[in-house]
Write a structure and sequence with these properties.
It contains 15 helices and 15 strands. By secondary structure, it is of the alpha/beta class. The strands form three sheets. Strands 5, 6, 9, 10, 11, 12, 13 and 14 form an eight-stranded mixed beta sheet that branches. Strands 2-1-8-15 form a four-stranded parallel beta sheet. Helix 1 packs parallel to helix 2, helix 2 packs parallel to helix 10 and helix 10 runs antiparallel to helix 11. The N terminus is likely disordered. Bound molecules: flavin-adenine dinucleotide. The site of flavin-adenine dinucleotide has 28 residues, from helix 1, strand 9, strand 14 and helix 10.
């Protein structure tokens, strides 16, 4: 990626950004002289990138985790809302266009979504008879809604961007103390950007709900149901709650035969009587591939590329900290029901960048990042309710007028497309 020119601040229509952004207080306002970031995902690397190119922290940032070595399997999110590039660009000090070029080169059109359709499936799989797909959201001219990529591809490009300036550790630091030991200064801040627990920090309450998911790269058959540049959200009402899936145009240099990817997911209560993780994941795999088939899409090298997960839900409320030199950055940007709104990368990028800006400005990163994410958490909460407790009335309304029901989402283009 090209070397940074400036530290542009993206317009924050999707986030509540603090007033102090862009104003730089004097050096004496800074409480910390170094930063240790535990984790090497999107939130961690975007934060590291911004700090590493600042005068205050250059040479004083450490990543207390190994350098990521991604493979072909679809681990973590693949729908990259285009808005994410604004925050990644701000952190890296390059235009968002440069980030997109670095990720996709001349193949960007293959990864781009310009409109989204909706389709409803009957409760039982088999030969799926879909109601739809019907278009419900269109991009503004010149601004795609989202890109489909393998999460590890973005992580790898971010790791390359910080590689020369920020050392990675050989292993993930097991404790806060181990993070502090790696600090290249006397007054370090520790940012935990990993979902693995720290042995010497109070454990959060045990989660009751989880999301199960199965995703796979796909290839269009001749005569596939979706128009070029369209993605699709699909829903199936089953046992009182919704299974939900999305299918996006996709480009991955490691699986060049794929031109789509598809995921299906469901919120589950892991403690419920008769709960069986393997059976729930298998149900997601089955509906994902049956729905793909109904759209005219075939899995590509599924045994090597399919990703499956069961990840915990985190409360939607603000995340606090028990000490001023430590912040749980991962729980802050993840606070919600994971996967379901396809925005974890955007929230990670926003919070990673803003956390770095707060440290540079001598401001409190905990309140700044929590406040900035409220709109995202509220959208996530509404969607989670639609998939569970409100699924019956929602299902009835979606059968009658999907475009009308989905209009509130379509009315928020700034939470999808780039605005800067
Ligand atoms: C199957 C799946 C599909 C997703 N789809 C999308 C998407 O389409 N678009 C999007 O923007 N985001 C999506 N996300 C979320 C997104 O991947 C992350 O929010 C994003 O990568 C930022 O996390 P990170 O890279 O900073 O942290 P990392 O630590 O690298 O990644 C964190 C991811 O691991 C998951 N995880 C795995 N095991 C655990 C565990 N035991 N406890 C807590 N978390 C765990 C988290 O849910 C999170 O998604 C998805 C996540 C998963 C697991």
């Amino acid at each position: 990626m090209a070397k940074p020119a400036s530290s542009a601040v993206p317009a924050g229509r999707d986030a509540r950004l603090p007033r102090w952004l862009g104003r730089r207080p004097g050096r004496e306002a800074r409480r910390f002289d170094s930063v240790v970031i535990r984790g090497a995902g999107i939130g961690a690397l975007i934060c590291a990138a911004r700090l590493a190119r600042s005068d205050a922290f250059a040479g004083r940032v450490r990543i207390a985790a190994p350098r990521p070595r991604p493979g072909r399997r679809l681990v973590n999110g693949c729908t990259l809302r285009a808005r994410t590039l604004d925050y990644a660009g701000a952190a890296l000090g390059v235009p968002a266009e440069t980030v997109a070029d670095d990720l996709f080169g001349a193949e960007r059109h293959k990864a781009s979504t310009w409109a989204q359709d909706f389709a409803l499936a009957p409760p039982h799989p088999g030969a799926l008879d879909l109601r739809g797909p019907t278009p419900w959201m269109e991009a503004e001219p010149g601004r795609p809604l989202a890109y489909g990529l393998r999460n590890g591809h973005l992580v790898d490009r971010l790791a390359r961007a910080v590689d020369l300036e920020v050392p990675f550790a050989d292993t993930l630091a097991p404790s806060l103390e181990a993070c502090l030991d790696q600090a290249p200064g006397d007054r370090p801040m520790v940012l935990d950007a990993s979902h693995e627990p720290l042995s010497d920090v109070p454990a959060p309450a045990k989660p009751e709900r989880f999301v199960v998911a199965s995703q796979v790269p796909l290839r269009r058959r001749d005569g596939a149901a979706l128009a070029a540049g369209h993605s699709c959200i699909g829903m199936r009402h089953r046992d009182g709650w919704f299974d939900t899936g999305v299918f996006y145009p996709f480009h991955d240099p490691l699986t060049p035969a794929a031109d789509f990817y598809g995921i299906f997911y469901r919120i589950v209560r892991a403690g419920a009587p008769g709960f069986d993780k393997a059976r729930e994941i298998a149900a997601m795999r089955e509906i994902d591939e049956a729905f793909a088939d109904a759209l005219g899409l075939d899995p590509v090298d599924a045994e090597a590329t399919r990703g499956e997960a069961m990840v915990p839900c985190i409360p939607w409320s603000d995340v606090t900290t028990h000490r001023a030199d430590y912040m749980d950055l991962f729980r802050t940007y993840s606070a919600c029901t994971p996967i379901i709104t396809g925005d974890g990368m955007t929230r990670g990028a926003l919070a990673g960048w803003l956390c770095a800006e707060a440290l540079l400005a001598g401001e409190d990163p905990v309140s700044a990042t929590n406040r900035s994410l409220r709109r995202w958490r509220s959208a996530n909460r509404n969607f989670a309710r639609g998939m569970t407790g409100l699924s019956r009335p929602l299902g009835a309304a979606l059968r009658r007028a999907p475009r009308l029901v989905l209009r509130p989402v379509a009315a928020q283009p700034h939470m999808w497309a780039r605005v800067a």
